[in-house]
Design goal:
By secondary structure, the chain is α/β, with parallel strands linked by helices. It has nine helices and 16 strands.
Length: about 300
């Protein structure tokens, strides 16, 4: 049996640090399964880890394999696993990376069944984007039907799903995006799309109940003033958002991280498969082009998600 291939990272840095090579096939442990990965999604954290931006916060045990989310087929089931079987199509969220490879060992608690008619490339993009959007909108942001939400960075992988989820929940969605992505974001359910580079347009916003911040930086500072008295900011990027609240401004700010919830992820995946939540096809790269895929996400010029197809 041939050894599976993986994108192995040997050092920090943007160039010549990742090699595509055979690795030892994982042996299934009791209580775990082996998944043959069909597609793995690329996230901003992946290129930041590769480049060493977070090496002090999240030191890697090199050499290692990056990648946090994937879709594929179960090929082995460990002793004691009863809720999955060989042949099941699954979507997974890894804990210790490892998804930029043809196989992975994982605990079943981090898997859901892939709905029929959902392509593996789309399925692979859902755990991080879907659950980051859901956590910020509903768990932290407590968004309700009839409220107004402003989504910062609406054309990205998380932002595009956030727009669709908020619209479906009955909220009025105001989104920030570039001019070239205006029609795309409107098609997801945004009532208004504002050019994030236009300070005058941003200053016209008011009475916002929730800001879902996926961008951070200077524009966020000016947005405190648009909140209602009980308004809130849920930021996935500004760790010290609570301390950045200007004096005399309403609302509260909370930094958050994605919370894994298999039931929520399954519901999102099923609704996308049925066409009830719009989801654009991701950009695809081969495993041999893993470094190019990371660079593509790093560039920030493409909307939606990027995936690595294994075969």
């Amino acid at each position: 049996m041939n050894k599976p291939l993986a994108a192995v990272m040997y050092d920090y840095g943007a160039h010549d640090t990742i090699k595509i090579e055979p690795v030892k096939r994982p042996e299934v442990s009791p209580g775990k399964v082996i998944v043959e990965i069909k597609a793995a999604a690329v996230n901003p954290l992946d290129w930041k880890l590769r480049d060493g931006i977070f090496k002090d916060l999240f030191p890697l045990n090199l050499p290692c394999v990056l990648g946090m989310e994937f879709a594929g087929d179960i090929v082995e089931v460990g002793e004691g696993v009863t809720n999955f079987k060989v042949g099941d199509r699954v979507i997974g969220k890894s804990v210790n990376y490892g998804a930029f490879a043809e196989t992975i060992e994982i605990t079943p608690e981090l898997l859901i069944l892939t709905p029929d008619n959902l392509d593996d490339s789309v399925a692979a993009t859902l755990p991080v984007a879907g659950l980051t959007a859901w956590t910020g909108l509903f768990d932290i942001g407590e968004l309700k039907s009839g409220e107004t939400v402003l989504i910062q960075g609406a054309a990205g992988g998380v932002g595009s799903l956030a727009v669709a989820l908020a619209h479906r929940a009955g909220a009025k969605v105001i989104a920030t995006a570039s001019k070239k992505n205006r029609d795309y974001v409107k098609s997801l359910g945004a009532a208004e799309v504002i050019d994030y580079s236009d300070p005058e347009a941003l200053s016209q916003i008011n009475d916002v109940d929730l800001i879902l911040d996926l961008v951070g930086g200077k524009p966020l500072t000016a947005l405190w003033s648009v909140l209602t008295p009980n308004g809130r900011i849920a930021s996935a990027v500004e760790v010290d958002i609570a301390e950045k609240k200007p004096g005399g401004q309403p609302g509260k700010g909370t930094f958050y991280q994605m919370k894994y919830n298999g039931a929520v992820l399954s519901s999102i995946a099923k609704d996308i498969a049925k066409g009830e939540i719009p989801c654009a096809p991701p950009r695809e790269f081969s495993l041999n082009d893993t470094s190019l895929a990371l660079d593509s996400v790093k560039s920030g010029v493409y909307r939606g998600k990027t995936v690595i197809r294994m075969k």
